[in-house]
Structures are given as structure tokens and as C-alpha cells.
């Protein structure tokens, strides 16, 4: 039988390779257009153990066309509890003893033991590292501000993100051209490219797109006068604080190629950025430059406990929430949403 | 009467087997898989929606690769993939009775492939855009309404048309022999204006370049435009517009939407590769053959902008001929020997650009500048200025009731550089800010004792202080 607090996974976004949901169509020539991208959270099947129950604990890793589960067997857990916990700590890829593994040759990169690396995230062309002391280092391509050092230059060696110096960070994540980290206190810092609103800051691209849509649908924009008042951010070259929600703190965060997903201490999932493949989970294909809660999990009374992003999709780990009443959305739909 | 789709079909291979999809292993098999799905859907009976979506997948994934790393290092294979994406997208748009809007979108898609992709299947995108342009016809402008055009007369302000001092004038010579040009100017690297050598250009004769002519030949084509007074400004940016939009927004009507003055410049763009019809109107001067490279090393750029556009004082790593076609330009030249008096930017991005505003230099910041010897000229239609390699040059378009069109031919390749910079610096004030923020952090972590309103206030203060800290560190304007 399935344990009440068992962890389940839901995915949404790019599905052209059936990495979220398999196609019922047996033909190999490709999916129906509406299954290539899933804009609503869909439960992942296939991670049941031989007794028909869900695996106790799983991790997910996703590439552009693949999705992998990392299972940990229930029996093993009971017997080797101590070893198990150590194993979990060791699975902090891409960090490995002495360095980290990149996704293109040369694969192994060494890291100085002085860094005391606790976790590391690989972006499209940059790297972000978190030390045991809570300091953040970045290096790699800097042309889109993704290193957070205030300039658009690249760095060959790890360099500390000075704006965050003295504030303890607890986790880091990297997208295609942006970087995100969470402080000890549960605040979210973002920097890098904001061309699709992936930083949660006002994006001029999105405003232009929504204006063009409104124009085509015959709605004249009454707000053209506010155009000059808003400050648009295209590149944020040093960290900015992002208020995901005023109500609670951020617990975990994941970055796709051009979108971001955050889990709050209240068990909600917020997403923003590029939505062209449904990777924001709001049942639309619009992009957003403001964090918006994924209502699906509230409605289903599911508590989001973890998140992992592929380049164009998002995977949320959930458990059943006891006694949580479904609420109405607290925020009106974003002006860029449908 | 043949339909648009049948004309496009003729340009495509007859069937799936004839359609090549060969890539090096730089392109992952999963991407090739999507391309194969596109090909299958192109020749099959699948509804347009699937082909459109799969084409978009190809465009999105290759676009991401094109924006990874530096442009110079982008593998050509990914640019080919991008072009294939454009090809499939055009097919999806035009297959089923496309509307005028869809045809324009298809033209734009071809242009994106020509600008960012690499030639595929015998430059098929060039062939397709030709077919599409004929379909649109030359008079329809209904769809080009995305920018509000306020009907205005052409600006007739007369700015300072500088008088040229004789002792500082760039020498002029009429139709010199190749040998005398080489001996007297090319080899000793001396600037000179060549007169009479482009009189035969169709652009100056039977196909005179004018706004109307450019609209008719290339009105719906998408081109890169630089927005902002000069590329060293912080609010300088690049955007993509059709030639019609560019002319409407920046040539005929120089007032931008927010009421401020904004300059748009079609600058340093290989327009003639993108729009071969315009290439017919110019000829490569024989003098270009005197260079060390061969003909493939010659790049031809076009410059098209309103009066007042300025190119800040800078140098290029190749020899240049600047041919003036319409309108006139004021140009000043400094020798590379005097670089130390020209205060180039220190940064890697802008080290070939001077910090000095040539026509309004800050004598306090740049005291040596006034001592640097220079040559100057006003370049008129029909003139060709030879700018020797690494010679510093400053260009200002002069206001006439006409836009300025010039072509510059240069060889040994030119590099386009990113132009944006934020400076960082430390100060003891930053240290103070840090300890202030940390104290607030300590207060905030003791949440149980805080009321909800206090918590909110603390967060506000902490956020504001963090932004102040960043503005101290990075001397940039803070966000709201």
C-alpha cells in the first residue's frame, strides 16, 4: 500500500521525448501537438517499487530530452539508515571528491580543497559554487551578467560574489544565463539575463509581446503612458533581492534554461520566466516576469517539498497535505498571463 | 495562377529522400530527431500545427546555442540548424492559405535565418524570401503599424556644418592610378579622399538610392538597428526592425515614444549579403584588390541613419574605404601614433574606443587631447575616404533633409563588439552598509518576537539597504 506521506513527482513543460508523460499513440512518428508540451502538472509514473508502492525517496535529474530517477530502496533504508544518510549527502552532483563534473569535455574540473565546496550548479556557460561557510563563488561566461560581479566580463577562476559577502547562503542554482541563491533566512537573490522575465524583474520583451497581442486582438492599450515610468531590466549584473511572496520564505529553488521555480516553506510552488512550453505550469504558454503560484497543487491539496528543473520543464516533489483547505489564488493573474 | 505554396514547393527538394539533414556530432541526436520529425511532417499530410511546433523547437534549441559563449565561437553547425528551423517554420506558415500577416512573418523568419544562421541547401532562404517578397507586392503597408507614426515634415534644422581648415584638410585626389594610390597612400598609411571613383555606381545613377527606393526593394526586410546616441552610452541597445519601421521611426520621425530624442542607426551591417538586390547597385572599387588578403576577406557594411548620428572616435583592425552615397558626414582622423593622447577606454570591450567627445572634449579630464594632430573633412556623395588600418576616426552625420547612406568596404574581417559596461568599486561606505544589513538579518531571524508589521518594515529596510550597498559597489542606478 502507498504510504500517506510518500513523495510523488509531478512534471510540466517540454515533453517532445515523453520525458513527463508517455504517449498513448503507438506510432513513432511523434506526438500529437498537444502532448509535446504540457502546461498543467502531470504525475510521473514508473517510480513504483516491486510491491506497487512508491519509492521512499527519489531524486530527479533532467536534460533537454531525458529524465532520470534516482531511487533508494525502502528495505535498504531501514537497515542501513546511517549509511543511507551519508549516501544522500554524497549525491551532490556535479560535485565529486576533488572537483566537479561538467557536461562537455573536459569533463573533470578540479577544485581547491580550500574552497570547502558544499554544492555546485552548472549553468549554460557558467558555474556557481556554495561553500560550507555560506559564501558564493561564480566563474565562466559573464556576458549576460550571470556571474553577478557587476560587469559583463568572463572569469576563468572562481571569484566571490561580493555583494553577498557576509550573508550566509544556503543553496545555489543556475539556469541558462541566470543564477539564483537562497539565504539562510529564506530570501531569494537573482542575477543574470532577464530576457524572458526569469529573474522576476520587469522585462521589456514581455511587455512588447503582450502589447502586440493586445493590439492584434483589437484592444487598444490605455496604459501606454506608463511605459516611461517602469524600469525594465534586461541584464542584472549584480544580485537583486526578489520577493517571491511576502507571506513566507523560500526553501528550495530550481532553474531551467530561461525560467525559475521556487518552493516556499508553506509548501507552495512559484514559477516565473519563459513559459513557451508550459514549463511554468499555469495552464498557459505565456511567459511571466513576476512569480506566480502554481494553483494546481493547492487545489489538489498537495504540499510541494522539492523542485528540479530540466532546461524546458519543471518537476515538483509533493506529499499529501493533511487538513489543508484549497484557497482561492491570492494574487490576480499577472498582466502578462493569458 | 500558381499559389504561393506551389512556388515554395518548387524551391524545395521533391521528396523526403532528396532532403539532406547531415550534421556533425556537435549536434545532439535528440535535436536531429526533431529535425527528422519536421522533414517527415513537411512531406506528409500532417496538420500545419505539428510542423509549426516542431520547427519552433528547432528554432528555440538552436537559438539557445547561438547565445551561448561568444558569437565567434558558436559552431557553424548550430547556425545551420537554426536555418533549418527557419526553413521549416516558413513552410508551416505558408502551407495553408497564409494571410498577409503570416507572409510577413515568413519574410521575417527568412531574415532571422539570413542574419543569424548559415547558408543551407544552396542558400534556400534567400530564394524563399525572394518568392515571398513578390507575393507581398510593393505598396501594402497596412501591417506596419506597430509604431505610431506622427506625420511630420522632414527636420530642417541646420546644425553646425563645420568649415574645414585648409591645413587640416584630408587631401583629395581624382581617380588616381592603382600604383600612385598604393605608393602615396596605401603603403605609407595616409588618409585620402578619392573623388570620381564611384561615379559609375547605379546607386548614384540610374538606381539612385532614396527612401522610396529602399522601401520598394527592402521595406519588409528585418535588419539590426542600434538605438541610442552613441554606442558608449549606457542606454544604447540593439533591436530588430523592418526597413519600413526603421525609416518611419528614426528617419522620418526622430521623436521616440517616450518623448525623448532617440537615435536609430543601421550601422555596420552586411546589408548587401542579406539583400542582394542592393548589391547590384554598388561595385567593389579596384583599389580594394591592393590589399593583402583575397576577395573573400573583403567585407561590405552599410550605414544608414538620420542626421546627427555619431560614431565615437575609434579604430578598426582593417583597412577601410568609406563610400558616401546620400547626404554628407563630418569626419575627423587621428594617427595611431598619437593613441596616448586619445585616452582609449581601459576595458577589454572598449579598448579600441576613445573616451573623449571629439567635438566637445573635457579639457580637465583629457588634457593631452587638444595637442593631438588630426585631419578632417566633410564627405559628400560620390566621395570615398580611405581610412588606413588602425587610424582613429570620428564620424557625425550632418543634418540635411535627407538620411545619410554610406557603405564602407573593409577587408581582413571586422569584429562586432559588445558595448555595455557597469563599473565596480569598493569604498569603506560599503563596509558600513554590510554591517548594517547583517544587524538587520540578526533581528529578522529572531522572528518569534516580531509583530507582522514590524517584520514587514524590517524587510523593507533590509531590501533598501541591500540595493544601496549594490549601488555603492557598482555605481549603477538602483532599480525601483
UniProtKB/TrEMBL annotation, chain A:
The keyword Transmembrane applies. PROSITE patterns: RCC1_2, RCC1_3. Pfam families: RCC1. Keywords: Membrane, Transmembrane, Transmembrane helix. RCC repeats lie at residues 134-185, 186-266, 267-320. The chain crosses the membrane at residues 75-96. InterPro entries: RCC1/BLIP-II (IPR009091), RCC1_domain-containing (IPR052830), Reg_chr_condens (IPR000408). PANTHER family: RCC1 DOMAIN-CONTAINING PROTEIN 1 (PTHR46849:SF1). This is RCC1 domain containing 1. It comes from Oryzias melastigma.
From TrEMBL, chain B:
It is found in: Nucleus. Its cofactor is Fe(2+). The lineage of its organism: Eukaryota, Metazoa, Chordata, Craniata, Vertebrata. Its EC number is 1.14.11.27. It comes from Oryzias melastigma. It comes from the Eukaryota. Its main location: nucleus. GO terms for cellular component: nucleus. This is Lysine-specific demethylase 8. The keyword Cytoplasm does not apply. It is an enzyme of class 1 (oxidoreductase). Pfam families: ARM_KDM8_N, Cupin_8. One of its GO terms (molecular function) is chromatin binding. Keywords: Biological rhythms, Cell cycle, Chromatin regulator, Dioxygenase, Iron, Metal-binding, Nucleus, Oxidoreductase, Transcription, Transcription regulation. Gene3D superfamilies: Cupin (2.60.120.650). Histone demethylase required for G2/M phase cell cycle progression. Specifically demethylates dimethylated 'Lys-36' (H3K36me2) of histone H3, an epigenetic repressive mark, thereby acting as a transcription activator. May play a role in the regulation of the circadian clock. Residues 273-428 form the JmjC domain.
Amino acid at each position: 500500500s502507498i504510504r500517506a506521506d510518500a513523495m510523488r513527482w509531478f512534471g510540466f513543460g517540454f515533453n517532445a521525448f515523453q520525458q513527463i508523460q508517455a504517449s498513448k499513440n503507438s506510432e513513432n512518428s511523434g506526438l500529437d501537438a498537444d502532448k509535446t508540451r504540457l502546461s498543467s502538472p502531470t504525475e510521473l509514473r514508473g517510480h513504483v517499487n516491486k510491491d506497487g508502492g512508491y519509492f521512499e525517496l527519489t531524486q530527479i535529474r533532467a536534460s533537454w530530452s531525458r529524465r532520470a530517477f534516482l531511487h533508494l530502496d525502502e528495505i535498504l533504508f531501514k537497515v542501513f539508515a546511517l549509511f543511507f544518510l551519508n549516501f544522500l549527502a554524497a549525491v551532490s552532483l556535479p560535485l565529486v571528491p576533488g572537483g566537479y563534473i561538467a557536461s562537455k569535455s573536459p569533463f573533470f574540473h578540479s577544485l581547491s580543497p580550500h574552497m570547502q565546496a558544499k554544492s555546485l550548479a552548472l549553468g549554460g556557460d557558467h558555474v556557481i559554487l556554495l561553500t560550507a561557510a555560506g559564501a558564493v563563488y561564480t566563474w565562466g561566461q559573464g556576458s549576460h551578467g550571470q556571474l553577478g560581479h557587476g560587469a559583463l566580463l568572463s572569469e576563468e577562476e572562481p571569484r566571490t560574489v561580493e555583494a553577498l559577502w557576509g550573508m550566509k547562503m544556503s543553496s545555489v542554482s543556475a539556469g541558462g544565463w541566470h543564477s539564483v541563491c537562497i539565504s539562510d533566512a529564506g530570501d531569494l537573490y537573482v542575477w543574470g539575463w532577464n530576457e524572458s522575465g526569469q529573474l522576476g524583474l520587469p522585462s521589456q520583451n514581455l511587455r512588447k509581446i503582450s502589447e502586440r497581442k493586445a493590439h492584434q486582438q483589437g484592444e487598444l492599450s490605455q496604459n501606454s503612458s506608463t511605459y516611461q515610468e517602469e524600469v525594465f531590466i534586461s541584464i542584472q549584473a549584480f544580485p537583486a533581492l526578489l520577493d517571491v511572496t511576502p507571506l513566507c520564505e523560500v526553501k528550495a529553488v530550481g532553474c531551467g534554461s530561461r525560467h525559475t521555480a521556487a518552493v516556499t516553506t508553506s509548501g507552495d510552488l512559484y514559477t516565473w520566466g519563459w513559459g513557451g512550453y508550459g514549463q511554468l505550469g499555469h495552464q498557459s504558454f505565456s511567459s511571466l516576469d513576476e512569480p506566480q503560484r502554481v494553483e494546481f497543487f493547492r487545489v489538489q491539496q498537495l504540499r510541494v517539498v522539492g523542485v528540479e528543473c530540466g532546461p524546458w520543464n519543471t518537476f515538483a516533489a509533493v506529499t499529501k497535505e493533511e487538513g489543508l483547505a484549497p484557497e482561492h489564488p491570492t494574487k490576480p493573474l499577472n498582466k502578462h498571463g493569458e | 495562377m500558381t499559389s504561393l505554396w506551389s512556388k515554395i514547393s518548387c524551391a524545395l527538394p521533391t521528396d523526403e529522400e532528396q532532403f539532406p539533414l547531415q550534421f556533425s556530432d556537435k549536434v545532439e541526436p535528440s535535436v536531429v530527431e526533431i529535425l527528422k520529425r519536421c522533414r517527415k511532417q513537411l512531406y506528409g499530410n500532417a496538420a500545419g500545427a505539428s510542423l509549426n511546433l516542431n520547427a519552433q523547437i528547432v528554432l528555440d534549441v538552436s537559438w539557445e546555442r547561438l547565445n551561448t559563449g561568444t558569437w565567434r565561437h558558436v559552431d557553424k553547425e548550430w547556425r545551420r540548424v537554426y536555418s533549418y528551423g527557419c526553413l521549416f517554420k516558413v513552410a508551416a506558415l505558408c502551407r495553408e492559405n497564409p494571410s498577409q500577416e503570416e507572409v510577413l512573418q515568413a519574410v521575417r523568419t527568412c531574415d532571422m535565418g539570413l542574419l543569424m544562421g548559415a547558408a543551407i541547401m544552396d542558400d534556400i532562404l534567400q530564394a524563399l524570401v525572394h518568392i515571398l517578397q513578390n507575393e507581398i507586392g510593393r505598396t501594402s503597408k497596412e501591417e506596419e503599424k506597430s509604431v505610431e507614426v506622427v506625420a511630420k515634415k522632414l527636420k530642417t534644422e541646420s546644425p553646425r556644418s563645420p568649415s574645414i581648415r585648409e591645413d587640416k584638410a584630408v587631401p583629395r585626389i581624382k581617380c588616381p592610378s592603382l600604383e600612385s594610390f598604393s605608393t602615396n597612400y596605401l603603403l605609407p598609411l595616409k588618409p585620402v579622399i578619392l573623388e570620381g571613383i564611384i561615379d559609375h555606381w547605379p546607386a548614384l545613377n540610374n538606381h539612385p538610392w532614396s527612401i522610396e527606393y529602399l522601401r520598394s526593394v527592402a521595406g519588409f526586410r528585418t535588419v539590426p538597428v542600434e538605438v541610442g546616441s552613441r554606442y558608449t552610452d549606457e542606454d544604447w541597445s540593439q533591436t530588430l526592425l523592418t526597413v519600413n519601421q526603421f525609416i518611419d521611426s528614426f528617419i522620418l520621425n526622430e521623436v521616440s515614444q517616450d518623448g525623448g530624442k532617440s537615435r536609430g542607426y543601421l550601422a555596420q551591417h552586411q546589408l548587401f549579403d542579406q539583400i542582394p538586390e542592393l548589391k547590384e547597385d554598388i561595385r567593389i572599387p579596384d583599389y580594394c584588390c591592393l590589399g593583402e588578403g583575397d576577395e573573400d576577406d573583403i567585407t561590405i557594411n552599410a550605414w544608414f541613419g538620420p542626421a546627427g548620428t555619431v560614431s565615437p572616435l575609434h579604430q578598426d583592425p582593417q583597412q577601410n574605404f568609406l563610400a558616401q552615397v546620400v547626404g554628407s558626414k563630418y569626419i575627423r582622423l587621428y594617427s595611431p601614433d598619437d593613441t596616448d593622447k586619445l585616452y582609449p577606454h581601459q576595458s577589454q570591450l572598449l579598448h579600441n574606443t576613445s573616451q573623449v567627445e571629439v567635438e566637445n572634449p573635457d579639457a580637465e579630464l583629457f588634457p593631452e587631447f587638444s595637442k593631438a594632430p588630426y585631419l578632417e573633412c566633410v564627405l559628400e556623395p560620390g566621395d570615398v575616404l580611405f581610412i588606413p588600418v588602425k587610424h582613429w576616426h570620428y564620424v557625425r552625420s550632418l543634418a540635411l533633409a535627407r538620411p545619410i547612406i554610406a557603405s564602407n568596404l573593409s577587408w581582413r574581417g571586422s569584429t562586432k563588439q559588445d558595448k555595455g559596461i557597469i563599473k565596480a568599486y569598493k569604498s569603506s561606505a560599503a563596509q558600513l552598509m554590510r554591517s548594517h544589513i547583517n544587524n538587520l538579518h540578526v533581528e529578522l531571524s529572531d522572528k518569534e518576537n516580531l509583530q507582522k508589521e514590524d517584520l514587514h518594515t524590517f524587510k523593507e529596510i533590509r531590501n533598501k539597504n541591500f540595493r544601496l550597498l549594490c549601488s555603492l559597489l557598482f555605481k549603477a542606478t538602483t532599480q525601483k
